[in-house]
UniProtKB/TrEMBL annotation:
The active site is at residue 269. The keyword Kinase does not apply. The keyword Metal-binding does not apply. Keywords: NAD, Oxidoreductase. Homotetramer. SUPFAM superfamilies: ALDH-like (SSF53720). Belongs to the aldehyde dehydrogenase family. It comes from the Bacteria. Its EC number is 1.2.1.3. This is aldehyde dehydrogenase (NAD(+)). Gene3D superfamilies: Aldehyde Dehydrogenase, Chain A, domain 1 (3.40.605.10), Aldehyde Dehydrogenase, Chain A, domain 2 (3.40.309.10). InterPro entries: Ald_DH/histidinol_DH (IPR016161), Ald_DH_C (IPR016163), Ald_DH_CS_GLU (IPR029510), Ald_DH_N (IPR016162), Aldehyde_DH_dom (IPR015590), ALDH7A1-like (IPR044638).
Length: 517
């Protein structure tokens, strides 16, 4: 083990989470299969090999599906508030292991320790939300048009829910899905990103502990490991009525087609190309904080990261200077060290995409005003540390229209009124998160109106990144249209049934149709 892992308590965390000395897939219960190819997890923090995990073979997958299908028959019969009690215990276990899991997230994925802790906090929050929800899975009651009839709707669990998740939120996105699916009476099979498999095993171990303590089958929460080929076992599987997939738009298009071909349901959470509009009435200090955190937080690897700043020409130079100056304060380095603001990218492929974006923007006619570059030398041995960059660009540049998952911020200028900025903001394929910085009520309301932002998330005087679990989370257009987390997102994890009961001795037909025998 490297000095970093020793100095920052990583070994202790791995031990506590049951992922120390993971060798070719040894894990608890269900996942103790080791026939498949080996998946190695290297930390982008220091380039060290953290562990090896076996990928799930088709035979293993069948065993997992068998366990999940059997577990569903038990779990669905448990009253929803009792399922909520299990989720409450799971939330408590997460509270106990918050620091350890936050550290593993930081070490395996590369986000700051604070953001790692934030992810675990999000898991705990969604558990609390789901516990309350377990007593509120309401359907409506309607008035029947026929005398002596009662009509209402109720929600039943769907069955096995497949979860495919991305590397950048290696634990929270799973929890958003599972906490809701579990209280709804579904069981889950999760394929985490092949880039963060140990986070998956750690979460599985925590869930397994809770199910074991309650004499419930571990099959309620299943884990499979591997890349897109393993994901395809689920997308093609007619035993899985719902696939919740988080990742790139490219992946979402493939998943959507596979699942639609068998008329399954998919919940898609895909790429974003998020912008902040900065109007002449913006508070510049707030704008700088929101824009810089949005662009460099998680090293620009959030689906909601700020990629475009659309600035009014009258304040363009002022904002450009203020944001560029703020970039000079950024400390780049080991994300476990809390004095650093920016950690590494996930791997060297991501570094290449970042470099490519900076080359492309110049080729398209843009100007890099805060130089990027890959950091080398002591502390940067993994080769994944890059300098957050800023480029002046035009909205129509191909590279600006594309989501580069790295800390590259494009400055775009608008003139005239806020409608012109909204048009630029909407004129991309993605529709996840958007924001306006303004103290002008008319501008804010126009941004939120029917002809305003076309995104799933639209904020006023807040940046694009960082969402609370209480609201439904997701986006439109190439972001996939899915909604997860709060509000009524739970409904996607259930099937709706309309029930009509006749308590008379007559059989009147709807719409007054006569059928006399
Ligand atoms: P990715 O698309 O490369 O992989 C995501 C997951 O999909 C992985 O588990 C991968 O193995 C799996 N996968 C890929 N192709 C598949 C296929 N054909 N069938 C089944 N599974 C398949 O994404 P990534 O690089 O891990 O994550 C970054 C992307 O995720 C960015 O585009 C980001 O915006 C997006 N993201 C979106 C949200 C959101 O809520 N909208 C949240 C997090 C990340």
């Amino acid at each position: 083990m490297s000095t970093i892992s020793a100095n920052f308590g990583i070994e202790k965390a791995l031990n506590l989470l049951g992922v120390k000395n993971i060798n070719e897939g040894t894990s608890t219960g269900l996942n103790n299969f080791s026939a498949g190819d080996v998946l190695e997890s290297y930390s982008p923090v220091d380039g060290q090999l953290i562990g090896k995990v076996a990928t799930t073979t088709k035979d293993d997958y069948e065993k997992v599906m068998d366990a999940a299908t059997k577990a569903f028959k038990i779990w669905r019969l448990m009253p929803a508030p009792q399922r909520g009690e299990i989720v409450r215990q799971f939330g408590d276990k997460l509270r106990e292991k918050k620091e350890a899991l936050g550290k593993l997230v930081s070490y395996e994925m590369g986000k700051s320790y604070q953001e790692g802790l934030g992810e675990v906090r999000e898991m705990i929050d969604i558990c609390d939300f789901a516990v309350g929800l377990s007593r509120q899975l309401h359907g409506l009651t309607m008035h029947s048009e026929r005398p002596g009839h009662r009509m209402y709707e109720q929600y039943h669990p769907l069955g096995v829910v497949g979860i495919i998740s991305a590397f950048n939120f290696p634990v929270a996105v799973w929890a958003w899905n599972t906490a809701l699916a579990w209280v709804c009476g579904d069981v889950t099979v999760w394929k985490p990103s092949e880039k963060t498999p140990l986070c998956g095993i750690a979460c599985q171990n925590i869930a397994a502990e809770v199910f074991k303590a309650n004499n419930l089958p571990e099959g309620i929460s299943c884990l499979i490991n591997g890349d897109s080929k393993v994901g395809e076992f689920m997308t093609k599987d007619t035993r899985i009525p719902l696939i919740s997939a988080t990742g790139s738009t490219r992946m979402g298009k493939m998943v959507a087609q596979e699942v639609a071909a068998r008329l399954g349901k998919s919940l898609l959470e895909l790429g974003g190309n998020n912008a902040i509009i900065v109007t002449p009435d913006a508070d510049i200090k707030m704008t700088v904080i929101g824009a810089v955190f949005g662009a460099v937080g998680t090293c620009g690897q959030r689906c909601t990261s700020t990629r475009r700043l659309i600035i009014h020409e009258s304040i363009y130079d002022k904002v450009k200077t203020a944001v560029s100056d703020a970039y000079k304060q950024l400390r780049i380095g080991n994300p476990l060290d809390e004095k650093n603001h920016v950690g590494p990218l996930i791997d060297t492929d991501a570094v290449k995409m970042y470099q490519n974006a900076l080359t492309k923007v110049v080729e398209d006619g843009g100007t890099v005003i805060v130089e990027g570059g890959v950091l080398r030398g002591a502390g940067y041995e993994s080769g994944c540390y890059v300098k957050p960059a800023i480029a002046e660009a035009k909205p129509e540049f191909k590279i600006v229209q594309h989501e580069t998952f790295a800390p590259v911020l494009y400055l775009l200028k608008y003139s005239g009124d806020v409608d012109n900025a909204i048009e630029i903001q909407n004129n991309v394929a993605q529709g996840l998160s958007s924001a306006i910085m303004t103290n002008n009520l008319r501008e804010a309301e126009r941004f939120l109106s029917v002809s305003g932002s076309d995104c799933g998330i639209a904020n006023v005087n807040i940046g694009t990144s960082g969402a609370e679990i209480g609201g439904a989370f997701g986006g439109e257009k190439e972001t996939g249209g899915g909604r997860e987390s709060g509000s009524d997102a739970w409904k996607v994890y259930m099937r709706r049934q309309t029930n009509t009961i006749n308590y008379t001795t007559e059989l009147p037909l709807a719409q007054g149709i006569k059928f006399d025998l």
